[in-house]
């Protein structure tokens, strides 16, 4: 493997060396299914789907686990406010997340555990922690003693004196900085039996139990949003190391989707739900946009940025479809060396996309010159590279029953001939002919925009 990844725990880029030859094990903190997913929610799904696809492309067998948090304070509160059973509320929004992931071409996980399905494992985990002196029970609650683990705070860089868990002190806590593993039952809330009384799990305990149950006490990569570094992932490490598990060898965190410089969140009201987004652009275009920035960077959402990304994708799509239309089926080829180097460098998608667009420009030049072999080779490579990113233009998953991409591709051949005629006229300073071509296209409902990559066209009123 030549892949290098930025490990949050090491605060550096490290060479990826899987624990078991030929296999990579990955755990992604999935959705807390409290509401309809927005683009901030699914960014991690897309970012680490690209990681998974690149690991697969590199020849590894990938065990990919993405959990569902289906019991949580917010779920209980929102379900109660809506006068609906908590389990029905969670199941409804779990389906919404699954639909969003599927619409955006995210590969289904190897396993998708729900927190409520691992209560037994959580109880066993707490027993291990108590027996090793890292946890204690009090009035039906169970807490983790953060002072018992000298390394606590290493992931996030928090000093113990500055730790605030973001939860109530609890009447039985020995120290305000301790965090809750198990919450004693309250009237009207769901509960499960334990040796310390009925109750429900704390959020942090859920992931440690699910990850180690499915991937073992030690696994390769743990992923999630950067907002989870503290307290969630810090507490996962504390629990797991306290229980004697090596846990994750690499920690990867993706940046937020922001709007107006603020993290996209329901509490701030600055969210754009997936169903609304898919009224503006096609699913493949939305996926391309959300996956186009480096996974560790912030992605500032704007309508202009979305439309620019969609137009960039359509330029790639148009080239591949034109080659397919003129010269027959385009097979999936090999990724370029520069593309591979970019992804090997901590999943450098922006640099990888630059290689894609350079290949497209060269392919368009060959296409216009009638060089079918060069054009076909370029299109095959583009398919391979875009496939790794999950947005291969010829992948059947992006074609619906009412898809008119073939008609658009045929129309592109005719319009390109007109645009070539216009370009020749402009080069010869025959501006009357050039303007006549543009006017004729405008009358036919075709908008023409001159760009650094040459003239681009679009049907009026169409994304």
* Structural class based on helices, strands and sheet pairing: alpha/beta
Unreliable segments of 5+ consecutive residues: none
Give the neighbour order of strands across the main sheet.
4-3-9-10
Mean pLDDT, to the nearest integer, reads 92
Oligomer: single chain
Share in β-strands = 15-25%
Rg (CA only): 26 Å
Distance between the termini: 40 Å
The ordered string of helix (H) and strand (E) elements is EEEHEHHHEEEEHEHEEEHHEHHHHHHEE
What is the number of strand segments? 15
Helix content: 40-55%
Question: Biggest sheet, open or closed, and with what strands and sense?
Answer: 4 strands, parallel
Please work out how many helical segments DSSP would assign: 14
Structure description:
By secondary structure, the protein is of the alpha/beta class. It has helices at 39-57, 73-81, 86-103, 119-131, 203-215, 229-242, 274-277, 283-292, 303-327, 337-344, 349-368, 372-388, 405-427, 431-443, and strands at residues 4-7, 12-15, 23-28, 61-66, 135-138, 141-144, 179-184, 199-201, 218-225, 247-254, 257-259, 262-263, 299-300, 446-451, 454-459. The longest helix has 25 residues, at 303-327.
Layout of SSEs?
Blueprint: E1 4-7, E2 12-15, E3 23-28, H1 39-57, E4 61-66, H2 73-81, H3 86-103, H4 119-131, E5 135-138, E6 141-144, E7 179-184, E8 199-201, H5 203-215, E9 218-225, H6 229-242, E10 247-254, E11 257-259, E12 262-263, H7 274-277, H8 283-292, E13 299-300, H9 303-327, H10 337-344, H11 349-368, H12 372-388, H13 405-427, H14 431-443, E14 446-451, E15 454-459
Parallel strand pairs: 3-4, 3-9, 9-10, 11-13
Antiparallel strand pairs: 1-2, 5-6, 6-7, 7-8, 11-12, 14-15
Helix pairs in contact: 2-3, 4-5, 5-6, 8-9, 9-11, 9-12, 9-13, 10-11, 11-12, 13-14
